[in-house]
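<derive_structure_tokens>
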Amino acid sequence: MPDKLHELQELFVVQAAKYEVFPLDNDILQRILAPKPSYVAGRTEFTYTGALAGIPNSNAPNVLAKSFTITADIKVSEDGGDGMIVTDGGRFGGYGLYLLKGKPVFTYNLLALEKVRWEGDEALAPGKHTLEFDFKYDGPGMGKGGSGVLKVDGKEVATKSLSSSIPHAGGRRRLPGAVPLHRDDQHGGLQARAVGTDA
């Protein structure tokens, strides 16, 4: 049996050299943290239209440790509207801008330790509206707090502050089912025309 093991070890070395596997590296943390090619590198404005799902984090706007604005032009049907407009993250961290019982809501999930919710007092009337969430970061540095303002058609409807924020991308990994969505009049009475962020 030791002879067979030795034979397989030699075969591995030959094949690894042939396919340029060496040097072997088991430093997974370094590979995870290493910069990766990204479509969004250097960009500060993003516009999304139509139905979108499953944008990889490396190609989604990064709102960590910076000020940002999310703007959504929507159309609410006569029946009202409920549904997600944009979201990034999931159960253990992230954010979402949505309508709930016709009211605009922005929720920030701080690593499941704290959830802060900005919500308008009134349901939106049928027709076109512009929703905006504007966040001013208290940086520099990671994990600082900030203040957010939720606006409907240019009018402030909710203002709150965060004492801290998600410090790194490990807390905002996109989970299945927690992706930017588009709803139309057939699916909840909400039609998002464009959603973008300014980093």
Q: What stands out?
A: The mean pLDDT is 79. Residues 2-18 form the longest helix (17 residues). Helices lie at 2-18, 28-33. The radius of gyration is 22 Å.
